[in-house]
Amino acid sequence: MKPTQNTWFKNTRFKNTGFLTLLLTTSVCIPHIGNAAEVSAFSGTPNIHIRQLAASCAACHGTQGNSVAAKGDDGANAVLAGMAPAEFTEKMLGFKDGSRKATVMHHHAKGLTVDEINLLAVYFSQQKQVVTKALKSQILKADHE
Amino acid sequence: MNNANHFNRRDFIKLAGAASALLISHNGFARATKPPVGRVVIIGGGYAGATVAKYLRLWSLGSVEVIVVEPNSQFVSCPLSNLVLGGSKSINDLTFDYDALKNNHGIKWVQDTVTAIDASAKKITMLRGELNYDRLIVAPGVDFNYDTLPTLLSAEAQQQIPHAWKAGWQTVNLRKQLEAMPDGGVFVMNVPKAPYRCPPGPYERACQVASYFKAHKPKSKVIVLDANAEIISKKGLFTKVFNETYAGIVDYRPDNAITSVDVATKTVSTDFDKIKADVLNVIPPQRAGKIAQIANLTEKDYPWCDVNFLTYESKLVPNVHVLGDSVAAGLPKSAHMATNQAKVCANAIVQLFSGQAPDPAPVFANTCYSYVTDKSAMHVANVYRYDEGKKMMISAEGGGVSMSPSEKEGAYAVAWAQNIWADTLT
Ligand SMILES: Cc1cc2nc3c(=O)[nH]c(=O)nc-3n(C[C@H](O)[C@H](O)[C@H](O)COP(=O)(O)OP(=O)(O)OC[C@H]3O[C@@H](n4cnc5c(N)ncnc54)[C@H](O)[C@@H]3O)c2cc1C
Hints:
The complex is a heterodimer of chains A (145) and B (426). With 145 residues, chain A is mostly helical.
């Protein structure tokens, strides 16, 4: 028996045309995963550059800006999802020109262009805020390396 | 052969079950009933592999079929694992399952080890079966090179002298040895020649062990034998911590590579020293993960993988992408970097499947914290930008390190870990 795609799916002929059709159809549904900004990105005006740059922030600010460890007291690890664009831009430009005190963020803001900061502001404002929790850890099993 | 057939039939049933579950959970969404636009097989469920699996599913709106092959049933984080040696964390704080990742995103999962890649047939071989792919992602982390340290190759030797450079039972073993060591003992560790996984990691480790000694075994010593000419990450900060916080405990010796190890007596030799340790931790020189070498994804004279930094496709083998520590990026090999590369790659593959060009100028950021005590940490942070002339990711202006370590940054480092774990594994 020949394994994999012949068994599971005949997928090669769906490449390109199939994908584009799919993108058109998906743009009218609200998908379970993803969000409005991404769907619109798929239906004609993709800003793939910003979605990937925004995703880079996830290590400290969570997937699509939904931080699981936001600190109320000093604004660190802030939830960026749903933040007003003006607030995001003001803070980031402050970090960039040094007028706003920072522990870490000045090292990022200085490396970004003003355009990127503005686009990130719009991107994060469009992300849905969802309540997320830190992942639960577990006991290491004996068969692990 | 029989084995493979058995695997595939059984696996087909398992995956068919998963596919119908997908149909229910995403009820009404066209994508679940459409055939996928292509299949991506991912070797390795570490930081890079798990992240690229998630973002391929997210950004293709579920239209790309994603299969991860990973031998371990649990994810154990290397970041924060030095704190296990210091005693402020347990390995059980750093261990997670893959269930949320798989279930949230409809990722297919095969618990197995990949043994070969047939790039012309677009097929991989595992211990227990085979899989075809349209695009393959190789994200196996690092392989240890014992050519210069042959006495450490065996599992028995590593029981005596763990590397603990892949978090897991070796980390626990090393901590137990430190706990059992009497006060006044000598802990010897090394820093391998760069490039290796996590440039500041060995120096962080020296601090963690010193922190434990300072509180519990103050007559003990930490000797650090560095194969490099100087501290290669956060140099000013680590130098200060070694000389001030751990004065009289840490003895840092640059340009002092280990040339041989006598396992029975835990004695290491360098060109300058011969030291008998009470507890010995040797971190071997590193190279791209074994499967990357087997599949000829590395150059002969340079054991890392050259890729196109817009897609992370191998420069040597078409339709095969390489991510994470195995990549010859000239940048720090970190978990944050591995996840960044994974996102650029996922973005590019979704574009390629739809016949469009990838982002011509990706940008991403890296933040890396190191703990110097049980509570205080310091960072290095940088934005990296694709340079069209050099055709690689180059550090942008404005990056830098902490003024000094602080408890505030210690809290940020935990927040970093919690966010990157949630991003990678849910
Ligand atoms: C002590 C220590 C501290 C660190 N601290 C930090 C930190 O604070 N911050 C930071 O950003 N980074 C840190 N790092 C670095 C970070 O752990 C690595 O850069 C990161 O794990 C790289 O991700 P990866 O996906 O390339 O490899 P890994 O995470 O190692 O994943 C590789 C996976 O591939 C699997 N695999 C290998 N071969 C095969 C095969 N043939 N078939 C199937 N599966 C296979 C493995 O089982 C593994 O799960 C630290 C590392 C260490 C050792």
